[in-house]
Write a structure and sequence with these properties.
single chain, 342 residues, alpha+beta, BirA Bifunctional Protein, domain 2, 2 domains, 3-stranded antiparallel sheet, 11 helices, rod-shaped, binds 3,4-dihydroxyphenylalanine
C-alpha cells in the first residue's frame, strides 16, 4: 500500500466520523454518538483499528510518516468524540425545562374575583333609580345626633335613641356634648342634602347602617339601606306609590305587586310600610311616607311651599328576595363557594 493511499484512507475516515459525530450533536442524541464511537473508535473492530493494519503494509521507509499520521488521526478522533459528548450534555441541561413543557396539555383555569352580590345590588339599584331621575349621593357613616335623630323629628325621649339600639361612640358632637354614633339609618342623608340644596330635590343614598341587633337569619349588626327623597311643589303619595312600583317592577319583574300598610315614623306623615308580592309571597322591604313638615322646617324649607316623599328600603332584603337567599349571614360569611354563584 502506498503511503498516499494510507493517508487518504485516514483522512476519509476522519471526515465521515466527524459527519456522524455532528449529526449526533444536532439531534442531541447520545445513542447515535455511542454508535458512531463504536463504529470508528471501537477497540475490536472499529474502522480506526482496521486502518491500523495498513501500517504494516506501507514501504519500510514510509513507516515513520505513516505512524505519525496514524497517531494524529487517533488523537483527532478521540478529541472530536470528547467534544461531541460535552456539547450534547451542555445543550441538554439547558433545554431540559423546555423539553418538559407540553403545549398541547389542557391549561389550568385562572379564577378571577368578582363583585360581591351586595355591591352588585347597590350598583343595579343606583342604575334603576338613576333612570327614574334620582341622583345617587353619599353621607358619612359616623353621624351626629342632629342628623341621625333631631332633624328627623325623633324626640329626645323616643325609644329609637335607646343606647341598647345604637352604636354610640365616645366622641361628642361639637358644642352639644351629645355622643356621635354609627348611623342607624340612611335617612340622615336626607337632612344633609336638604341642608345644602334648595328644592327641588330628587336623590337616593345607598350605604351601610349599624344596629346592635342579635345576629340571626334576618338580622345583622351592619346592613345596607337605599334611601330615596323627592321634594318639589305638589309631590303626593300617588307619586310615591308610582315611583316605588316602577322601581319594584324594574328590579324584580313585571309580575310584582306593591302594598302600603299604615305605619308610623317620626319623619313622615302619613307613614307606610312597603310590601312587595313576588312569586306568590308578600315580603316587607321597608318604610316610606310624606316628609313631615317638622323635618322640612328643620332644614329651612317652607312646608307651605314644598312637599315631598321619602322611602328607606333594605338592600339585603331586596337582594335576598331576588336571589332566593334565606339567611342574611350567607352574605357576610365570605364563603367563596356561596359568593361565586353571583
Ligand atoms: N329610616 C327607616 C328605618 O331605618 C326607614 C324609613 C322609613 C325611611 C320611612 C324613610 C321613610 O325615608 O320615609 O327603619
Amino acid at each position: 500500500m502506498s503511503i498516499n493511499d494510507f493517508i487518504k484512507q485516514l483522512d476519509t475516515l476522519v471526515e465521515s466520523a466527524a459527519e456522524q459525530f455532528n449529526s449526533a450533536i444536532e439531534k442531541l442524541d447520545k445513542d447515535i454518538l455511542e454508535n458512531a464511537r463504536i463504529e470508528f473508535l471501537g477497540a475490536k473492530s472499529g474502522k480506526l483499528k482496521s486502518a491500523q493494519k495498513g501500517l504494516g503494509k506501507v514501504e519500510k521507509a514510509d513507516k515513520p510518516v505513516a505512524g505519525k499520521k496514524f497517531n494524529e488521526v487517533k488523537q483527532k478522533l478521540e478529541g472530536l468524540f470528547q467534544a461531541a459528548i460535552e456539547q450534547i450534555e451542555k445543550s441538554r441541561s439547558s433545554t431540559e425545562v423546555k423539553e418538559q413543557f407540553d403545549v398541547t396539555l389542557p391549561g389550568t383555569r385562572i379564577s378571577t374575583g368578582h363583585v360581591h352580590p351586595i355591591t352588585q345590588t347597590i350598583e343595579e339599584l343606583k342604575d334603576i333609580t338613576g333612570r327614574l331621575g334620582f341622583t345617587a349621593v353619599e353621607g358619612p357613616e359616623i353621624e351626629d345626633d342632629w342628623h341621625n335623630f333631631e332633624a328627623l323629628n325623633i324626640s329626645l325621649e323616643h325609644p329609637a335613641r335607646d343606647p341598647l339600639d345604637n352604636f354610640y361612640l365616645q366622641t361628642a358632637e361639637k358644642n352639644t356634648g351629645k355622643d356621635n354614633l354609627l348611623r342607624s339609618q340612611t335617612s340622615t342623608v336626607q337632612i344633609r342634602v336638604m341642608e345644602d340644596t334648595k328644592p327641588p330635590v330628587r336623590i337616593v343614598s345607598l350605604g351601610r347602617v349599624y344596629r346592635p341587633d342579635e345576629v340571626d337569619a334576618t338580622h345583622y349588626a351592619m346592613f345596607h339601606q337605599i334611601e330615596g327623597l323627592m321634594i318639589d311643589t305638589d309631590v303626593t303619595m300617588a307619586d310615591l306609590k308610582s315611583v316605588l312600583l316602577l322601581f319594584a317592577k324594574t328590579y324584580l319583574g313585571d309580575d310584582v305587586e306593591i302594598r302600603f300598610r299604615p305605619s308610623f315614623f317620626p319623619f313622615t306623615e302619613p307613614s307606610v310600610e312597603v310590601d312587595m308580592r313576588w312569586r306568590g309571597i308578600w315580603l316587607e322591604f321597608g318604610g316610606a311616607g310624606m316628609v313631615d313638615p317638622n323635618v322640612l322646617r328643620s332644614v329651612g324649607y317652607d312646608p307651605e311651599e314644598v312637599s315631598g316623599f321619602a322611602f328607606g328600603l333594605g338592600v339585603e332584603r331586596l337582594c335576598m328576595g331576588r336571589h332566593g337567599i334565606n339567611d342574611i349571614r350567607y352574605l357576610y360569611d365570605n364563603n367563596v363557594r356561596f359568593l361565586s354563584q353571583f
